[in-house]
Amino acid sequence: MDFKKAPILLLISIFIATGLQAQTKKHKAAVKPSSAKLKASIAAGSTIFTENCVACHQADGMGIPNMNPPLAKTTFVLGDKTKLIKIILNGFSDDVEINGQRYANTMASHDFLKDQEIADLLTYVRNSFGNKASAVTITQVKAARAANGK
Amino acid sequence: MKKRNLVWTMLPAAAIAGTILFNGCKSGNQHDKKATDSTTTAPTANAGLKLPDGFSAAAIAENMGGTREIAVTPQNNIYVKLNNLKDGKTILYLTQDGDKATLKTSFGDFKGTGVYVKNGYLYASSDEEVFRYKLNDKNEVISPDKPEKIVTGLISRNEHEAKAITLDNDGNLYVNIGAYSNSCQVLDRKKGSPGQKGCPILDSAGGIWQFKADKLNQHYGDGIRYATGLRNVVGMDWNQQNNQLFVMQHGRDQLHDLFPQYYTTKQSADLPAECMYAIKKGDNAGWPYMYYDWQQNKKILMPEYGGDGKKEGGETAINPTAAFPGHLAPNGLLFYTGNQFPEKYKNGAFIAFHGSWNRAPEPQAGYFVVFQPFKDGKPDGKYEVFADGFSGGAENTAKGSAVHRPCGLAQGPDGALYVTDDSKGTIYKITYKK
Predict the structure, then answer these.
(1) A91: phi > 0 → left, psi -120 to 50 → alpha, else beta; which?
(2) Is ipTM strictly over 0.85?
(3) I need a surface site. Which of B18, B39, B364, B423 has the fewest CB within 10 A?
(4) Measured between CB atoms, does B401 come within 8 Å of chain A?
(5) pLDDT reading at B216 higher than 90
(6) Chain B CA closest to residue A67
């Protein structure tokens, strides 16, 4: 390793570590016993995101102005879970305005994803890009798919 | 607001991390001029653009809204089309004094992209219609509230809506009608959905239509489908040397997303080519049945129609005149006919690349103005990046979070080159001194 970079890496690690610690403290009350399960779901969801979503919504979840909406801190993502699951199942072609910016691109239906994959994906999205929200479960996806009349 | 707050709270951390990483990589270099430049807030040279020797740039107007295409009159005054409302209006008229342009008036209530000045009229487009305004002998609009409707009822379906326009020397108007689809799948952009046989979109979109420049209320039936098989065109210009229409096509998206078995994310970022086509009446450029691969120099069968990245296709499709890397989004095309720039630029093509979004997870690219040399009406040698730096730095470019995004191009009567930015509403003027 380049010794010149060592102090920088150390600094970054401390920075990240303190950041994480602060986060853990802050959300201690919200952390449930099943946090290992949550972590596994988020990790699995991250892979599905990379294969199916990143090209439009981007790695930072900020989307592209005029075309692809952001996933960071929007009511679409953090609000009603059934509505969110239905966007994955049916796609989305409405012209929407989020925080004063218009988004017009068509999102295709992703109903080919399995129930567990959708649950993991949405759990990842709801816990990334600055989001912090409850997990989406396979039961919730199954129910939404059944109610979707497909 | 939430989004903005997030950005602001993240900024200091990003800046610190950026500085650490940057200085880390350049360890040992005590006098890092670039690092100083990137952190200063004072006005930067050439409005932040990097240009070839002898050229300089000025931001003659800023915060003008979503400035799309631009036209400069023989009197050196400027018309700009907006894709959003600015103070309730969508066409700006500016006058110039040195390196400053001043907004004189604004008018029009239709959002859109195209603007063009020719033969005593100002032409401007919404996403469904084309209008014109009569000009006086100083090329000022006589009745800003009373445009004439030239073309109406064009398709606009939330994808490739912009109606770019240009005129020839024989009283014809050319309008791009972009395909409301990525690759004419039965279900747009859906993995596994096949391409529609005999793509029905091509009847009313995915091509260039020709209309009369002086006839009112024309519909599809009054026009001619001049060229087809063009997915989406924003940059287009009438080449005066060839007396011919040239267009820049935006190539298809998502090769890896939809066909991971044939394309890596890297291939998907680079392919297909963004193509320049020299158009003759009746030409077919091949979309959606093929795309052009600039690495293999071949027309490749579209995977939605049975392709695998290798099988060739598009037997009846014309070849591109020039091909550029994928997803750079050519939004402006201008053949330079002025006398101010050095001789090599004469009759060559400037192309404003708006910048990519469909290269993720690979780094994004573009956000620059390119020069493609021409000789005797044909490309002569490789293109070169002419004006760079719109994005505000390599990191912004890679992330796709460019500060400025070049869009429209125009030439002034003195041979100066104008570039719009539809992100921050900056208008740049690029000049050359011997």
Answers:
(1) left
(2) no
(3) B39
(4) yes
(5) yes
(6) B159
